[in-house]
Amino acid sequence: MSLFGMSAEKLALFAVAVALLALTPGPVWIYLISRTLAQGRRAGYFSLIGVMAGVLVHLFAAALGLSALLMAVPGAFDAIKLAGAAYLLWLAWSTVRGAGFSFTPQPLPPVPDRVLFRQSLLASVVNPKVAVFYLSLFPQFVDPAGGSVLLQSLALGVVHVTVSTVIDGALVTIAGLLSAWFV
Known about the structure:
Elements: E1 2-3, E2 6-7, H1 8-22, H2 27-39, H3 41-63, H4 66-72, H5 74-99, H6 113-125, H7 128-141, H8 149-182
Antiparallel strand pairs: 1-2
Helix pairs in contact: 1-8, 2-3, 2-8, 3-6, 3-7, 3-8
């Protein structure tokens, strides 16, 4: 069986690689867990939607060859990494500043869904882990002789988004259950 020139075995192997990436703790996990614990599952799920939208940005960038350009121009890749670090530091500073350096748990004011989406989209887009993953793994699974490279890349992206949504969605659900249990 073939999908856009890719065998089911190749797609399954890619799904395993994606699952391993999704199971690796990182900034996205911290963001999703903290949002869910602080503001509930709804906030976690809206944040998850933003994260997956950011993954789609990386997917289209990789599929169109932009990730290769970023790796070829080291300054551009470094700028994205620095922007990602700066954004995470800004989020941390905003949290600490809002808490007044008090480590006593305080309820956070509700954040509108659109803000949750925007923050998580930005956090996902500036996360270089996904761009490096695509750049290093896509060439291993895409076969120019198998048909359209763009369609093969998009098929791999669909696998990535599906697997990551399931894993990160489970993470949000578990964090939401734990949050309700502690309240």
